[in-house]
Amino acid sequence: MRTSRFILLLLALCVHLSVHPQSVLNGVDDTSGGFLNSGDDSEYYDANGQKRSTWGRDTSKVDRTVPTEFFQWRIDERLGTVLPEEYNDTLPHLFQNWNATDGLYGEYNYLGNLGAPRLARNFLDREAVTDFMFTQNFDYYHTSPGNFLFTNTKSPLTNLQYHSCGTKENGQDRVRAYFATNINKLAGIGFKIDYLFGRGYYLNQQNSQFGGTLYGYYRGEHYDMHAMASWEHLKMGENGGIEDETYITNPQSFPQSYSSRDIPTVLSDVYNRNDQQTYYLTHRYSLGIYHDLEVPDSLKPVMPQDQELLMRIKSDSLRDVIKADTLLLSATLDSLKTQWQNEQVTPQEFIPVTSFIHTLHIKRLTHNNYVRNSGIPSTYLTHDPYYRSSYSSFSDETKAISVKNTLGLQLREGFNKWAKAGVTLFASHEFKRFNLPSLATNDTLDAYEHYTENHLSVGGELLKSQGHTLHYRAGAEFWVVGPDAGDMELYGNADLNFRLGKDTVRFEANAFIKNVGPAFYFDHFHSQTHWWDNSMDRETRTRLEGRLAIDRTATSLRFGVENLTNYTYFASLLTPNYASDGTTISSYGHDVEARQHSSNIQVLSATLHQDLHLGIFHWDNEVTWQASSNQDVLPLPALSIYTNPYIAFHIAKVLRVELGADMRYFTRYYAPDYAPFVQQFVVQDATQERTKIGHYPILNAYANFAIKRVRGYINVKHFNQSTGHYFWAPRYPVDPFSIHFGISWNFYD
User: Fold this and answer.
1) By CB atoms within 10 Å of each CB, which of 412, 586, 638, 722 scores lowest?
2) pLDDT band, very low/low/confident/very high, at 28 (cuts 50, 70, 90)
């Protein structure tokens, strides 16, 4: 009931905001923001210039057309460079997968429930573990400056989405609202609100997430600014997986049948909570020159006729006197023509030459792991409690804060005809502070150790974004002061567009060399359940990656190779607990370690994406092949497949419908396990019995529709449920057969 009230209140708020701002903007003419002026009460005419009839209608009401055009972009977090973004929230295709935690193409492993952490199966899609790792696996929900979409819109835009499935006991609900409006042509503001609640089809895995983001921007000739503030609260129930995979793989072995809610889980009353705030500002001031634009003769203003020029003289009697005197008329016309020519303004374009850049990025995170009511079995953890008397009830907390300032000087692209790329020099200072529990902690005292770091780095970047054929970006950053002194990162990407017959072919390349120290929590982690202090070496990663795309045939091939030295990762460490006979393993004690693999590891990857269609028949396919030189340290599936045959057609020319069924599949492998007390995916312990998952297709059937500003879907997930290994993490089964639906509605005005 509380959730329903919240959803209704949020929907009412967003609809109100989508209407009310126009009352403020209606007074702004097209030169100020492109919005129509509803205060104009002149007569209306049709497209042929004929006066509209007012018979039979209320002439006190004004008909007007609301413009619905908008465009979106992202920004580079370091320097605030604007990056065009083709995707927007109005695309109807694959909308049934938009809310899927396993990704648009089922490319992520996760724990089954909506709102659970996830891990990309394709290694090239994984981000390196950061100092804020506890929210990193929630990237589908977490908002960072680099993945947020800024919007320029001609009319206030509100997008409302609602996704739901299941019942009051096991259901999943998500409501999302995005609002954007322009102050004028150069500035805009907006917000995003996202609320998610997944009760879970299995016990003790309920998730609740709430987040909000405010943003604003100004994009002028000399001054450019983007700002945003984001607050997120993520709470997750941890059940440790089901007690026995046999409930899924061989349910006939039990004397009775079990529904998903009847299957016992390892943990109960165990929770993780993350509260993160992000504050971001990037702005720049540009110096430059104004360049006259060449206007075609057909668009140049034409000198008025003599009679029109004379009409500039307001006095009728004076005009008559001038017309009567031939010499005076000639002199007057010459003067009026000179005056008219002086009034003509040559259109100019501002060309920025030098920009001064400042970026401020503040992040704060509080991670809390807590247990209530003896929710941990006595044999689950390896160690005795570190600093409390028992595991029956406790709360562990760690905090992290980062304040980063970056100053940059940029010689803009096109500032000189001999310079084909822009050049940027920058320097960054980052202050970090971490709080971890101290050994002085006990049942009545919470004590903390504080780690403070200051980092200084310098770097440079080359950027070419203009033109149609070749674009590139290359840069380097070196850390010179602080614990990371000596770290280095070189990076570059480029795209080449060229014609091949009637096709446009695009080749993209990406490469980097990183020699950097591991994230803070690889070196230090203190909690009631796991504890380590390390001093790890730098990790070296070298990647070469390419992508070939042909738009006409909807074909793309992505391929890459990466070499890793001193690969840093989390690993599970299991200790057998034996039964009374001394030989039978009844359970395992769990621990987690942060490890480094000193030898080289190579990863090869290739992904083919091919969309086919013939008339109303369509077939989308994506196949990824991977190979890891060390499957014990970096396990990867050999094949991951997504296939989606469907038909697409229109009803009454306005309703677009897609009917289809898609499949997700990957080959069996020792997939990373999940460690609930560090909230990370960990490599399985190779010294003990391991679990393989995969080789089980997940089939979904769906109906997808779009009409004008409304999109919706009905998705029957896992309709092929049967006995098998339908796990996407060891001991964490995929949700059983379920019916999902969702709707998205765009409001303008």
Assistant:
1) 722
2) very low
